[in-house]
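Researcher: Let's run the pair from yesterday's discussion. Sequence first, then tokens, for each.
Model: Starting with the first of the pair.
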Amino acid sequence: MMMSEQFSEKPFNRLLLTGAAGGLGRVLRERIKPWANIVRLSDIVTVENIVAGEELQVCDLADKAAVHELLKGVDAVLHFGGISVEDKFEPIMQANILGMHHLYEAVYKLGVRRVVYASSSHTVGFYRTTELVDADSPLRPDGFYGLSKCFGEALSRYYYDRFGIETVCLRIGSSFPEPRNARMMVTYLSYDDLVELVRVALFTPRVGHSIIFGTSDNQARWWDNSKAAHLGFTPRDSSRVFADRFAQAAPAVDPHDLTSIYQGGPFVTAGPQY
């Protein structure tokens, strides 16, 4: 991977973290500091309390020129920016589709060689909870948000095949301090496991274009990561420790409740009602 010309005792001189004001961005902000001399934090809103070793660059991903400026001097990108919930198509298109294109154009033109992309399990949300899905399973997005993440995965694949830019797409499940409901007993990704997932995605010497599901070592599984074994991701946490809170972790499926039939849960009904 291409490093900055500046000598660095840390693996990277400058890492870019987009979406730094978001929930996962705030977690990563503190944890990635040992990896770089400078962590460039970016979001569409300001990020508070910038300290030594950090720099702030407010940026709207829909602004092509601003994104190009954002990528200058960057060694690698942790792309957690954009809209992270279901919404109308237009705002998702601006941030997650047009913004993704702007990011990769800047990555290509400025010679950045590695992107870690926060994709989502909602790229396959319309698989049933009785099915096991892997990286080669056909995409089945459960809304405009999931659809935008499908675009991001396809776009990053194009930039790898055409220009050799390596990307690891993290199909993140539910990353919170603890599961919030029975569904999250399956999709739970602890913060420590999230950081480890990002670490292996960033530091594995050759990743090509890889897709990996972001989940801890939970008892029930919807996703098979065997095709991402080269990344060496070994989650250490599990939702098992919260099992007493959700005695009905695998309840009988109501045939009339789409949110219990499909892996996407509430996302499958969250969009516009036609």
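Model: Moving on to the second of the pair.
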Amino acid sequence: MIRSTTAVAAALLCATPALAGFANQASYGWEDGGTILGGYNNDGMFYENSSSEAYGGTQSLFLQEVDLGGTPQTFVAHITGLTDGDIIDGSFWAWDDSLGASSSLRIWGSYTSGGDITAYSGSAGGNSTYSGDADNGELWQQLSHTWTFDSDGGERDGLVIQIRMYANSGGDPGLYVDDLFVGVSSDTAVITLVPAPGALALLGLAGIAGRRRRA
């Protein structure tokens, strides 16, 4: 089964020296003007690089569901070259002033095959924690999850880290995401994060617009 995506960017490796416990790792803070890798069921999503709120640095990703319906899945990382038993740690910081009410965000994962971010090969699950649930009143909250890769008998070899948005019927004021981190136990895995707009132009690819709809 293949799901279509919106504005899927080309693979671009973004890595930093590995910390203890991770053979590969990468991080991204939206400081270079990038937005997302793509998504599913996010026709009605508005997203842009923003300087209004930031956990680290001066920029973050702003997400807003302007046409309510379904659960938008925004892709921010694609890890390929995985085999059974590989461990993937993913996290990002979410700014949410709803404090226990919608709108809210959650970290989730889905499987892919053939190195293709559009080749949906099943849900990988995620964390049941939602943004805005922090009991200390803080607007920034870290959402994280650890996946153990299952190739389903060799049918899949990749995992996408998603931001899922849950908006309310009264409209969505928008939320922010910053400081994405991915750590992988495998030294053969490739971590693809969001390319900067300049990198897309350099590669001769179409840029990612702030708001895109499927035809």
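Researcher: Give me one sentence on the second I can quote.
Model: The mean pLDDT is 80.
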